[in-house]
Amino acid sequence: MTLSSASPTPTPGSSPNPLGNFLNRVRHLSWPWRITWFYLTFMLFLPTVALVLRASTLSPAEVWRIATDPVAIAAYNVTFFTSLAAALINGFVGLIAAWVLVRYEFPGKKFVDAAIDLPFALPTAVAGLTLSTVYSNVGWIGSLLAPFGIQVSFTRLGVLLAMLFISFPFVVRTVQPVLQEMERDIEEAAWCLGASEWQTFWRVVLPPLMPAVLTGVALGFARAVGEYGSVVIIAGNIPFQDLIAPVLIFQRLEQFDYAGATVIGTVLLLISLASLVMINVIEAYRRRYD
Question: Where are the alpha helices (DSSP H) in the chain?
Fold first, then answer.
């Protein structure tokens, strides 16, 4: 068994036929390459292709009608605008949290650091149940907000809260290692040159951090777009109010409308792919500072 990490190389005596040459290269792939392609093919590529092919069985007019249905458009708006708001808020708060974890020493720091990953480990349905209990009109926090006319559970605000919860670790865990590796000498040099703490942060620290922050925001946005378990519990799931696209897909499946669910799922897939392209562009920008 060959365990080379290098990319496959042409073997001597390969066929001049392009197809034969390709098959020859496939036969001589190292085992890491074979396992990688096997896993990606059955776990990622085939399900994605199956979704697109399922949607392509419909006529373009039918696909357009389903994709632009008023209920679907409203669900897209709630999903993407709320996800974007959650990602931006977490981009700001996550940067502050990463700064505190890296630059300050305090009792219970390891516990707080570990708790950041709680949304990764907690089942999303449990998260939704917990949030809806705490933020309901009779919950600990919801009862305090109710006298001011603020209702969280079963509203779009509840959707935002659930998305904030599940996407928060992405920003912290993306920014934290970059901040840890940042040289403090540069900041001290800025202070010696007369820069204030705010000027040092804004002009010296923040620019190299921005690619990591943007990456965390993009990852958090992509995660929030696909969230279902927590939102379906804390939201009222009412069309034109707080119904998100993943819940709409599930409702279509319950109605045996597989075509409608597939088309809406394809729209989400295309937007998710666009998000991945954006993440790659951000990563390329980030490498300029490495």
Answer: 18-27, 31-40, 46-56, 60-67, 70-103, 109-115, 118-121, 124-135, 142-145, 156-181, 184-192, 197-200, 206-225, 229-234, 245-254, 258-286
Question: What is the phi/psi pair of residue 283, to 5°?
Answer: -65, -40
Q: Say which residue the tokens 């379906």 belong to.
A: 232
Q: Whole-angstrom Cα distance, residue 190 to residue 240?
A: 52
Instruction: Answer for the pair 236, 242: CB distance below 8 angstroms, yes or no.
Output: yes
- Please identify which residue in the block is written with the tokens 């992405």: 170
What is d(CA 101, CA 104) in angstroms, rounded to the nearest whole number? 6
pLDDT greater than 50 at residue 237: yes
Q: Which of 222, 219, 239 is nearest to 282 (CA)?
A: 219
Model confidence over 88-143: pLDDT tens digits? Answer: 999 999 999 999 999 999 999 999 999 999 988 888 888 888 898 899 888 899 88
How does pLDDT run across 55-100, given as a tens digit for each residue?
777 888 888 888 889 999 999 999 989 999 999 999 999 999 999 9
Q: Are 164 and 133 in contact (CB under 8 A)?
A: no
pLDDT tens digit string along 145-198?
A: 988 988 888 899 999 999 999 999 999 999 999 999 888 888 888 888 888 888
The SS3 of residue 27 is helix
Residues ≥6 apart with Cβ < 8 Å to 227: 124, 162, 163, 166, 167, 244, 246
